[in-house]
Sulfite oxidase
Amino acid sequence: MIPTDVSETADTTTDEAAYDRRRLRQWLAGRARADGVDRRDLLRMLAATGLTAGLPTAFAAPARAAAPAASAPGIVKPLPEEWFTVRGTNAEANFAAFADTGHHTPASRFFVRNHTATPRLDADTWSLRVWGDGLAGEGRTFTLDDLMALPATTRSCFVECAGNGRSFFTGQQGQSVSGTAWTLGAIGSARWRGVRLAHVLRLAGLRRAAVDVLPRGLDSDYVTADGTNLGRVRRPLPVAKALDDVLLAYEMNGEPLPPDHGAPVRLIVPSWIGIASIKWVGDIQVAAEPLFSPWNTDFYRLFGDAYPPEGSAPLSRQTLKSAFELPWNAELPARTGHRLTGRSWSGSGTVARVDVSTDGGRSWRRARLDGSAHRADWVRWSVPWRPTATGPTTLLARATDTTGRTQPDTTAYNTQGYLFDAVVRHPVTVT
Ligand SMILES: Nc1nc2c(c(=O)[nH]1)N[C@H]1C(S)=C(S)[C@@H](COP(=O)(O)O)O[C@H]1N2
Ligand SMILES: [Mo]
């Protein structure tokens, strides 16, 4: 198998060896060029695909899944148990604990998704090189001071992993998928300040012929569980998106970016899956031809029966999701007035309405949105609830966005468990 999305395998599972072999043959045949990966590595991967098969993932409820770990290898900030669940090299935020945060997620509470480890970079010596045949001339190198001297833009938006909600493919749909078994906490929203990537590309001499840009992280090479070196984390971004609303961000919630979130500078690609928002960016290739990396060929596409053999187009926008700010299996006293709170978000349009059920989906009530929703961001909502009958019940929240999409009851299976958008069934007990 190609270990997907993460280096640990403890909470991953796949029995997709045949599929992986087919993908790798296509890759070897040059159907998906992955620069920086040499042929020997690919052949070793191919050999490895016949040998690995995971164990079925046991779906673990978020509240109890947390190993009492307070640190993850490679994450710098403290990870208190009440705020985070460590998953390999990553830390999932505890969504229930967002109940006491405002609209924005403090950096101390923001999920971390690291392919390897947070590098400690020196802002004084850091620089960004912009280069490639999509530029007129030699390109240009920018220091942090150079970037900070340019006009600044602030955007409020979420960063969310494409695999957020992945565990529900197993927990709700009984399907095995590969990758980190996130519940719903692989998301946070912050106020990001920086310079528009468009501005920097133009200063670097962007030509009309440019089609893709390839930002690359300064974290160390990503080596998969079977020992294949995929090189630095990098994912091509079409020039049209790069020129639209993308930031080279150096501040998060009014403070310099913290190390785990990309210091000194990261990309922020609003509405798109988290992998687009490359952290610790060190260089950006600008190309007059389409670019490929493992992160837009074998990862971050949809594979499975519902998709073509070569997979879907590379994933771009996030999907539609909702979550309650309530622990899994929370106990709520009967005959007491409760206010259920949560958040919904969409990568397309804005969230138009949210409906909540407290009886397993039999009846629905409209939640009150907290202010108006904004694109590429989440909206908070609440609904009052005074339960009378005691015993277990299931809460559901279902969002609809301004494109007219409503969260479905199930999500079409894809092998790597991306873009889970079905309504999540949240168990609670009335006591
Ligand atoms: N250089 C680099 N950039 C990266 C990653 C990484 O491992 N290395 N992970 C990506 C993924 S998969 C996600 S979901 C987001 C997570 O951002 P955060 O850790 O600030 O929450 O960063 C993206 N940018
Ligand atoms: Mo991600």
Observations:
- Helices lie at 17-28, 39-49, 62-65, 144-148, 167-171, 197-203, 239-242, 294-297.
- The chain has a mean pLDDT of 88.
